[in-house]
């Protein structure tokens, strides 16, 4: 069929033609967004899941839902290994305050929000195209140099500015596993304070199954402040819908047996389903799509996934990191014991520590519990077994 109008979207963060199997989550999100601007308490959301399950798509969808609703301002940012949380927040928070400033009303809180932001920028030493420098600094707010206090002051100021406009704010943070432990702790304390004050700001974050660790007070608050919806592979029913619906919209049937092959081979993982749909669409002349078509496309899909999804992740690694992952794939299973990797490589568990932590830091593996590791990329072990070098 015509490649130009191929609706499937095997790309990070691209909205799929059929956003299947997430109804329960959207139901919860609607309640969350509905309550937020009223100042009623809401629990922040922290979505966790492997790579390619649709976390970014979900956050983007929440941005759209907030925009459609009209009284919740979405603030979106993607965390990275390279930048501090403060530096990442500054620009989107400034934009949000400017948006609030343009809305009707007196806006005293908005202006004080901008002053607080100015102080905050001073503490994190970011020079920033004249942010609020025409404003008097708000003495004593967000300028202590202690991230926990300053971030709280800043987010409280933003939340107050929003409340003044009868707006809510949802702070969307993608790839939240890259936020460091002290930064995440500071964020938790800030959200806790905001909740105590009954202000309309909450977070919807997404990240790999290991979230930043927390200690002390922050840890006990986090348990009450957040819900942790797990985003996983799609059910069989949802997978079939995800593959079938876009074809049906073009008037083409997908036979049960073909949909079944896609479900089995993709494991229900959204990224893989999109790749299957994309290749099937380009391969078939018209309908119905049969199991034979699926068999024929299987090799193309594997080649594409190996090239685009898997290999790029391998290329960034050092030889010793690669050997660690290969050992994991040889041992097999979802959760792999460090002790088994140690035996496989003939290296002590202690000596493996640095590789293990650099792979966690790079987001290649995570630790589901003490002494265990797992891949963050679904079916990565199969890829490594297919491509032994
Ligand atoms: N519910 C869904 N149904 C079908 N495809 C989906 C769904 N959610 C996401 N996708 C597709 O999966 C791929 C990965 O989505 P993305 O949001 O980038 O995942 P993550 O952020 O978890 O790595 C994209 O190609 C997207 O179009
Ligand atoms: Mg993502």
Structural description of this entry:
- With 389 residues, the protein is α/β, with parallel strands linked by helices.
- The chain has 3 domains: 3-11 and 234-313, Helicase, Ruva Protein, domain 3 (Orthogonal Bundle); 23-227, Rossmann fold; 316-386, Arc Repressor Mutant, subunit A (Orthogonal Bundle).
- 54% of the residues lie in helices and 9% in strands.
- The protein has 15 helices and 8 strands.
- It has helices spanning 23-35, 55-69, 85-102, 108-124, 147-164, 181-196, 216-225, 236-249, 256-266, 270-283, 291-315, 319-331, 338-345, 349-361, 380-386, and strands at residues 44-48, 72-78, 168-174, 201-207, 226-227, 336-337, 365-366, 372-375.
- The strands form 2 sheets. It has a 5-stranded parallel sheet, with helices on both faces. The chain has a 3-stranded antiparallel sheet with strand order 6-8-7.
- The longest helix has 25 residues, at 291-315.
- It starts with 22 loop residues before the first helix and ends with a helix.
- Residues 127-135 have low confidence and may be disordered.
- Residues 12-13, 55-56, 174 line the site of magnesium ion.
Put the structure in a nutshell:
This protein starts with 22 loop residues before the first helix and ends with a helix. Mean pLDDT is 90; it is low at 127-135.
Write the layout of secondary structure elements.
Elements: H1 23-35, E1 44-48, H2 55-69, E2 72-78, H3 85-102, H4 108-124, H5 147-164, E3 168-174, H6 181-196, E4 201-207, H7 216-225, E5 226-227, H8 236-249, H9 256-266, H10 270-283, H11 291-315, H12 319-331, E6 336-337, H13 338-345, H14 349-361, E7 365-366, E8 372-375, H15 380-386
Parallel strand pairs: 1-4, 1-5, 2-3, 3-4
Antiparallel strand pairs: 6-8, 7-8
């Amino acid at each position: 069929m015509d490649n130009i109008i191929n609706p499937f979207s095997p790309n990070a963060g691209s909205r799929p033609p059929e956003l299947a199997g997430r109804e329960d989550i959207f139901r919860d999100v609607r309640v969350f967004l509905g309550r937020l601007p009223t100042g009623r308490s809401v629990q922040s959301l922290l979505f966790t899941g492997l790579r390619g399950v649709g976390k970014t798509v979900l956050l983007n969808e929440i941005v759209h839902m907030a925009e459609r609703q009209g009284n919740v301002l979405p603030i979106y940012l993607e965390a990275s290994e390279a930048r501090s949380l403060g530096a990442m927040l500054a620009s989107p928070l400034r934009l949000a305050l400017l948006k609030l400033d343009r809305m009707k009303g007196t806006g005293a809180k908005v202006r004080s929000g901008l002053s607080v932001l100015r102080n905050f920028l001073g503490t994190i030493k970011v020079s920033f195209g004249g942010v609020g420098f025409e404003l008097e600094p708000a003495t004593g707010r967000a300028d202590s140099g202690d991230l926990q206090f300053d971030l709280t002051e800043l987010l409280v100021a933003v939340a107050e500015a929003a409340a003044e406009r009868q707006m809510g704010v949802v702070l969307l943070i993608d790839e939240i596993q890259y936020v460091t432990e002290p930064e995440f702790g500071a964020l938790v304390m800030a959200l806790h304070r905001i909740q105590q004050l009954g202000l309309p700001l909450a977070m919807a974050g997404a990240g790999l199954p290991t979230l930043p660790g927390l200690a002390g007070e922050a840890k006990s608050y986090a348990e009450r402040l957040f819900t942790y919806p797990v985003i996983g592979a799609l059910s069989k029913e949802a997978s079939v819908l995800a593959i079938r619906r876009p074809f049906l919209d073009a008037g083409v049937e997908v036979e049960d047996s073909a949909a079944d092959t896609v479900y089995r081979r993709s494991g229900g993982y959204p990224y893989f389903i999109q790749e299957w749909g994309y290749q099937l669409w380009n391969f078939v002349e018209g309908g119905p799509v049969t199991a034979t078509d699926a068999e024929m496309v299987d090799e193309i899909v594997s080649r594409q996934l190996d090239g685009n999804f898997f290999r790029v992740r391998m290329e960034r690694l050092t030889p010793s990191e690669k050997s660690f992952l290969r050992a994991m794939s040889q041992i097999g299973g979802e959760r792999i014991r460090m002790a088994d990797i140690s035996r496989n490589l003939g290296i002590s568990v202690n000596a493996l520590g640095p590789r293990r932590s650099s792979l966690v830091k790079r987001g290649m593996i995570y630790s589901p519990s003490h002494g265990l590791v797992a891949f963050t990329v679904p079916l990565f072990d199969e890829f490594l077994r297919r491509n032994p070098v």
